[in-house]
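The pair is quoted verbatim below.
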Amino acid sequence: MVLLDLYISYCAVYDSRRPDLAVVLFLTDILSGNASDPFPGARMNPTRLFAASCVALITTSMVFSIRGDILDALAADFRLTKEQIGLCLSPAFWGFTLSIWIGGSLVDFLGMRRLLLVSAGGYVAAVLAILLAPRPAAAPPIFYTDPGFITLYAAMLTLGLSQGLVEGVINPLAASMYPREKTHKLNVLHAWWPGGLIIGGLASYALTKLLGLDAASVPAAMATFGWQVKLGLVIVPAIVYATMIWNQPFPKTERVAAGVSNRDMVREVFAPLFVLWWVCMWMTAATELGPDQWVGSVMTQVANMQGILLLVYTASLMFILRFFGGRLAHALSPLGLLTLSSVLSAAGLWGLSSVSTPGGAFLWATIFGIGKTFFWPLMLAFTAERFAKSGALGLAIIGGTGNLSVAFILPVMGSWYDTQGPAAAFRHVAYLPAVLTVIFGVLLVTFRRKSTSTEGTMLKAAAD
């Protein structure tokens, strides 16, 4: 379908009466890697494309926050345990990973616009599939053979694939449009990840209050209607960003524009430091996103409050800090800030695992929220700056690995939840940022001792 859409665009642009000419130009551009812009002569609008990227990321994070809020309702309607619902969530993240890797590899050939349009269509299709999925009347003896579970699993995979296409496109797109402001623009772009969490979380909370879903006794039909309305909200921003990019010309990626060969790109991702950075991404992503997906359920159980409010609160902290935290990054250096973030994240998660009151929950959530803020954008910014030759592939590998990490940690946290209680899910994850503290600290000392030009470049870029 992507190739068909691409060919139709060429027919429309060049001459619908000369399909033979369109075919020749189409194949020539595909083979040369120039198919990302089928609108020659049209003027690119970076502001519009950047805004559309932000809306696309809002859609992605709205899925995350709303899905986290409706986990208990989904488990009840589909007769699943916490471990089983965690397993059902996994394809959303390894699908995210697969899609980022594939999208990052094909973005130079199929074009950014078409991949974003496919992602928007995937969001709509996945949400509709979940809303229409058959729900069992009783817990099936073998849950993974139940049609409802299979539909839910496939829909979560489709959501993940759509989210991955977004991430696989918007990162190289921002880096290509703003080559001298990579760190700043990636921080601003990824400020809209918590922005979407806030929008989705507040919308979910408002619907919970409006429909009385937090009452002591809620009719089953109303509980089902509630989660369906919440999830249906995702369709709105998906349509918005698809409309914003429709027929808009996109730039070539920075790697293609610089003339870096595919061989040099692949060689870059096998550098020892890149491999270490890849390992770190497993832990930073699990630290940030694993607890975020479970916080609604866990905090509702241990702190007697609407857990989704904590997600909204920490997302608000992230949103502000990612927009206005440049001075902090300049003062500490990216590696220094990552080290501090690891310390705060470990302390915050450990504290959250022992709370029993809303006040305590907000206190430790503040520490955790500040700690996790810069993990994702700085991991990507360091990749774009330090491994520039890796291009979209390097960003895709790092971003995809982060989501693959979450696919692994979610069912594990669900198992801890079932067997050891909700608090254990957070307590065990706290060991990951403790390990990261050591790794980032050693890298920080090593970079400062060598006084490399790379670290100096990162310091200046982080201050922009």
